[in-house]
Structure to design on (227 residues):
């Protein structure tokens, strides 16, 4: 899962990035409102952690702006203001949740898990498509047909997670590269091909009827013609 952190306090940002990466989240960080807004508009993030007090554009403005564009990415708003009116303002701006500084790491992670379940459309941490299931907590791929399972690498997991969450779409190589490796990555499209091959082998290993189909000149889609 890829998280965008928009926070201008350097120490806070560094600490949050470290915590989130230890929890196996992919994290991108921006320290001002304009850059943060542009990143959200890319629509590649699963969750946004958004500080209220930011240079150039505050969190309230950012939330209003992205919601007016129809972007529905869950937003967890951070602020040092604890008054109820500030919380109401944040939620009315378009935030999905609100956390007051200082906060406990356990609470932050619990709120992110809740928002993540909403993003992926799962209540139990299990993603399903046709005869396969993906356990988001253990990165385990299982096949319902024969009960076979296998542990995925982080990149393999993220590829399948993204494909399952968008199983009604063809995803381009560009979308996959940015979603899995991020904007700042120098990933070439052949890396996408390599990890796609690894992921296909894992599907074959568990005996899944689900396949990752290449759509010539466009990208990839998840297909199952035999369930």
């Amino acid at each position: 899962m890829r998280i965008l952190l928009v926070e201008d306090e350097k120490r806070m940002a560094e600490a949050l990035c470290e915590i989130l990466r230890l929890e196996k989240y992919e994290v991108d960080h921006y320290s001002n409102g304009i850059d943060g807004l542009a990143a959200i508009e890319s629509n590649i993030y699963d969750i946004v952690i958004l500080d209220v007090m930011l240079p150039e554009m505050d969190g309230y403005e950012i939330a209003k702006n992205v919601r007016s564009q129809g972007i529905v990415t869950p937003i967890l708003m951070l602020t040092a203001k604890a008054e109820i009116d500030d919380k109401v303002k944040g939620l009315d701006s378009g935030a999905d949740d609100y956390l007051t500084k200082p906060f406990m790491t356990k609470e932050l992670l619990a709120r992110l898990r809740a928002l993540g379940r909403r993003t992926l459309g799962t209540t139990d941490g299990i993603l399903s498509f046709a005869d396969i299931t993906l356990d988001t907590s253990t990165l385990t791929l299982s096949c319902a047909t024969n009960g076979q399972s296998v542990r995925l690498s982080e990149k393999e997991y993220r590829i399948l997670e993204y494909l399952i969450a968008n199983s009604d779409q063809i995803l381009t190589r560009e979308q996959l590269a940015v979603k899995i490796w991020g904007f700042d990555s120098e990933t070439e499209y052949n890396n996408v091909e390599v990890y796609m091959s690894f992921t296909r082998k894992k599907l074959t290993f568990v005996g899944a009827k689900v396949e990752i189909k290449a759509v010539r000149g466009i990208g990839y889609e998840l297909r199952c013609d035999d369930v």
The longest strand covers residues 2-6.
